[in-house]
Amino acid sequence: MTSPAASVETTETPPIKRLALFILEIRKTILILGSAIALGTVGFYFISPYLFTLLQTHLDQKLAFFAVAEPFLAHAKLAFCFTLFILMPWIMYTFWKALSRPFQLNKTSLFSFVFFTCCLFYAGTFFCYYVTLPFGVKFLLGFESKELQSVISVGKFVSFVTVFVLAFGLIFELPVFMIFTAKVGLISRQSFARNRRYALLLISIAAALLTPTPDIINMLLMGGPLYLLYETGILILTIIEKRETAN
Question: Does the pLDDT value for residue 133 go beyond 50?
Answer without folding.
Answer: yes
